[in-house]
Amino acid sequence: MPIPHSLQRAAKNAVESSAILQDPAALRATNRPQLRRYEVASLLPNGNIAETRHIAPALPLFEEAFCAFSRGSLVDTEIGPIAVEDLLPGDRLKTHDGSMQTLMWKGSTSLIPARPDAHGRTHHLTSFMTDSFGMQKPMSCVMAGPAARLLRTPPHLRAIAGEAPLLTPVQEFHDGMNIVETAPPTPVQMFHFCLESHAVIKIGGLQFETYHPGTKALQLISHAMRTLYLNMFSHIDQLSDFGPMAFARAGDGQIDAVSS
User: Fold this and answer.
1) What is the Cα–Cα distance from 109 to 70, expressed in whole angstroms?
2) Which tens digits make up the pLDDT trace of 180-204?
3) 201 with 149: CB under 8 angstroms?
4) Where are the alpha helices (DSSP H) in 90-242?
5) I want to staple 133 with a disulfide (CB 3.0 to 4.6 A). Which of 36, 60, 137, 236 is the partner?
6) In DSSP terms, which residues pair with 189 in a beta bridge?
7) pLDDT tens for each residue of 208-234
8) Which positions of the chain have pLDDT values less than 70?
9) pTM higher than 0.85 for the full model?
10) Closest by Cα among 91, 94, 113 to 102
11) Which residues make Cβ contacts (< 8 Å) with residue 220, sequence separation at least 6?
């Protein structure tokens, strides 16, 4: 006697939907968050440098603290340009107003820009060709990461910002000619850093912001995730210790934070 089609469908649905009949290893792989290794160098109160390694989720909250500048990017310091990978906590960096601030924290991680993560997100870089914004802006090609922001307002955001400069994600400047998206298929070492307070520095002749998580970064995360995040910053005990933001910040076409 043939099995009715309705029973066949019911059996098929049960097999597909029942967790009992699925491979436990496959279930664990599906629910397991993707992790990433992060490396940190921090300036301790006694002047020593602490170097630590962390394993944490590959989530925007964490990645944005490490993925602004590629290896080889030249940062203006009190003794001249230094490659970002050669900077050490305690070095003095030149800010946009000509003053000097101490490098308190440097973080790094490796990305494969051409490879999407488990959630389909990509980490494409932005290449600024020489003289993209005028003479020596930048002085040579600058490769910025997905978390980098420029102190510059693109034309399509000027109606929102008016005359005030904005810290704008580098993706907003893509023009398909001088400023383009690039996705190398091999690992790229990325960096970001904190000074004594949020500031704008010059890298290759362009003005980029130092790291600040923003005013609302930790509002919707668990206590465990907050603790894991803050443990990466030895000079920070709570979000307010990052201090006020130096300039207003733009995100997704809207101003999402204001300077104090």
Assistant:
1) 10
2) 999 999 999 999 999 999 999 999 9
3) no
4) 158-161, 223-230
5) 137
6) 110
7) 999 999 988 888 889 999 999 999 999
8) 1-33, 161, 251-260
9) no
10) 91
11) none
